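Question: does this match?
>
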Amino acid sequence: MASANDLRKGMAIVLNNDVAVVLETTHRTPGNLRAFVQASLRSIKTGKTFELRFSSAETIQVIPMMTTKMEFSYKDREDYIFTDPETYETVQLTPELVGDAKNFLMENGKVTMTLINDKPVSIELPASVILTVSESPEGIRGDSANNVQKTITLETGIEIQAPLFIKKGEKIKVDTRTGKYMERA
């Protein structure tokens, strides 16, 4: 058991017979009142985010989390299948758990999967990925005055803004956190 003062971002705790991941914590000591810890948490069961206030002396049950490197294998109907490159064990994730990461998943693409009690709870993509442009309209002559952008479609189906000189078939580097074009690959 740990005290509320020990809460840190990324920890998993037991809360009302549910597991919640700590997203953010702030320790506060208002004027003449007792200190408390304000925490932003996300429920593993529902996926909802909520704020909670803990007394500094309150004890909390911390659950160990494990991270492992996985590779995206394929999409089976709605679910996404990931494989452990060392043991070749497969893990099936729902679209809700994968979230917006689906826009950047390529076959054999590497991700970091977080597990609590051997159950996957989230995946984390690398900071950037290299994708091939599948559709790119031609730039209009004379449109190159001030960093003009055009909408292109990548092989995963996501549409992003890129410079006019990007053509169909080129490989580009995309930031997975913002979904923005970075450079040619």
User: Anything to note?
Assistant: The chain has a mean pLDDT of 87.
